[in-house]
Amino acid sequence: MILENYIRDIQDFPKKGITFKDITPLLGNPVAVKECLSMLVKGLEGRPVDKVVGIESRGFFFATLLARELNAGFVPVRKPGKLPFATLSSAYELEYGTDTLEIHTDAIRAGEKVLIHDDVLATGGTASAVCSLVEKLGGEIVECSFIMELSFDTIPKSV
């Protein structure tokens, strides 16, 4: 199964000049979801994971499935003002601006093994910000996983 066939390009979204990678066709196909999840879990065999951190918002889809598959807890990382408890925040650069993410201060305990998941790796700014949050809480990052990685050599601006 070629998962790329289930990811469509949306031109000029969310801004003119940006090509958005839409994973909703993948999410709508249970066979593709199962294959994608299998591929994400494969590299984690034999490595304990206590928490799976999902990055708002498209990272939540597979992060919750990964948490269930790995018998781990799920931790959402969200944009400011979306989490109801005390938070820790980290600002980061996007390929088309800046943003901030937050995590609950009690979401990860020192020494917990953490898998960080998002749908796409573009510039690495988002993943780096989340790694910083997890490490500030004392978590040990096992791996960062992504459904796709964008190459700016061939795709000038993508999300």
UniProtKB/TrEMBL annotation:
Name of this protein: Adenine phosphoribosyltransferase
Coiled-coil region(s): none
E.C. code: 2.4.2.7
Keyword Glycoprotein part of the UniProt annotation: no
GO cellular component, one term: cytoplasm
Function in brief: Catalyzes a salvage reaction resulting in the formation of AMP, that is energically less costly than de novo synthesis.
BP-aspect Gene Ontology terms: adenine salvage; AMP salvage; purine ribonucleoside salvage
Organism: Flavobacterium cyanobacteriorum
Top enzyme class: transferase
Pathway: Purine metabolism; AMP biosynthesis via salvage pathway; AMP from adenine: step 1/1
Domain Phosphoribosyltransferase: 47-147
Family (UniProt): Belongs to the purine/pyrimidine phosphoribosyltransferase family.
